[in-house]
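testing teh design pipeline on a random one, pls ignore if ur not involved
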């Protein structure tokens, strides 16, 4: 939740800054709500089992796989999809970096990769360690090549854009390393 946007009501989901009613059917996944009901097709359905990361979105700034999450679980929370990252017709810096580094080929995984990387950057800023973090007591975790690869391992790219993806993320969040 950001200071410039009030919280969503408990009877609604705030998606990309707009409140939507909770689906009447409590079995609807967040992914299906986004794609099938709200026509937000940027979030992709890949494996539909939580293994590929194609459906990654941000909920209150934290990354989740939306295929394993029921929409009703997020009542009163704020969801950001790839469509919600850009502001005022300006690409998010990471979206621009993906273009600059050719971090997409087929593009199917790109929205999930970008949302995951935005969430990853927030984790780094909070000092959340990963499996490869050298000093677990350090409040600052730098976005090294190994940190980025480890933290992005839940988002699969099958077409070969992996090196461009890592370079785009590293360059976008390099100032966090300083």
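output:
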């Amino acid at each position: 939740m950001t200071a410039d946007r009030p919280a969503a009501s408990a009877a609604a989901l705030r998606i990309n800054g707009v409140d939507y009613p909770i689906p009447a059917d409590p079995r609807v996944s967040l992914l299906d709500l986004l794609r099938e009901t709200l026509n937000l097709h940027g979030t992709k359905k890949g494996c539909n089992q939580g293994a590929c990361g194609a459906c990654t979105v941000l909920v209150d700034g934290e990354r989740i796989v939306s295929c394993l999450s029921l929409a009703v679980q997020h009542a009163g929370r704020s969801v950001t999809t790839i469509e919600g990252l850009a502001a005022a017709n300006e690409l998010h810096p990471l979206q621009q970096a993906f273009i600059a580094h050719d971090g997409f080929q087929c593009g199917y995984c790109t929205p999930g990769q970008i949302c995951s990387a935005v969430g990853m950057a927030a984790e780094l800023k909070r000092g959340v360690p990963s499996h490869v973090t050298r000093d677990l007591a350090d409040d600052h975790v730098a976005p090294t090549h190994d940190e980025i690869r480890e933290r992005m391992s839940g988002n699969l790219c099958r077409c070969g854009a992996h090196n461009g993806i890592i370079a785009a993320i590293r360059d976008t969040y390099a100032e966090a390393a300083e």
